[in-house]
Amino acid sequence: MPTYENPRGFSIQFVFAKLVAKTRNEIIHKHVVKHLTKIVNRDYHLSFCKVCTNRKRNLENGIICSLTNKIADFQDNCPSYDFDTLEFQNYKKRFQDEISDKYTTKDMEKLIGVTSFEKPEFSRFSKYNSIEKTQNLVFKYNGFYGTIGIITILLIIVGLILTSNNDVFYLTGENIILLIFMLILLSICVFKLVEFSSKKKLKITINPNGIEYQNNNLSWNSIFDFGVLQINNNNTDASIILIGTITKGNVKIDLTDFNVSSEEFYNIIELNTKNVLQHRV
Description:
Helix content is about 45%, strand content about 20%.
């Protein structure tokens, strides 16, 4: 009941419960942020450790430092880092082997739509032509082509019904075939709707530390090679980036239906890894 001291009529118990809930949420948020930061830091540290001569494996913690017998714990650079050229070449070889096995195409293969690995030329006229312009970007899934596909299927179904000479639901031999065809189209439509719903929340974030994609964090320091998987087929709009990393292996990022082109994304990676790659040639 409202009073002079409590004009809104909130009980002390209610106010206390709200404060407790707010405090609990803040604690949970801090815990989640701390946990994510730890994961990002570990990935960054491993981008050094996995190509360091001082590395060794531990059953409990994975790769640790042989000098301290502990997992890495440094800020920007490790003072004991000793670059293992041979191990780094092994990573590059595995990446090149995958390209050679799956994505090296000849002229004839390109004509029939075989996927090839390409490195676009850096464009100075891109809107992402400096590191400063690439920071804190968020690319979202817009589902444009998926939406067009769903609308097209629905229009085909409506067109089939309207142009049918007989009652489409009257079970003649001709109509049964037509109904089966429409059911197949409806199934495809439902599949596309489910796919669109599952991808709607997808986003790709670019920050000073690296790339965040589908709960994966790729630090710039971990990336050693990358390119565009070009599907040479006029009937497809697929746009995929293949990235070779020290910590996560070879990673594919599907940019199809995201509001960024593969060439623009290539520019972004090239800018942010330029210094890293120069240190490892």
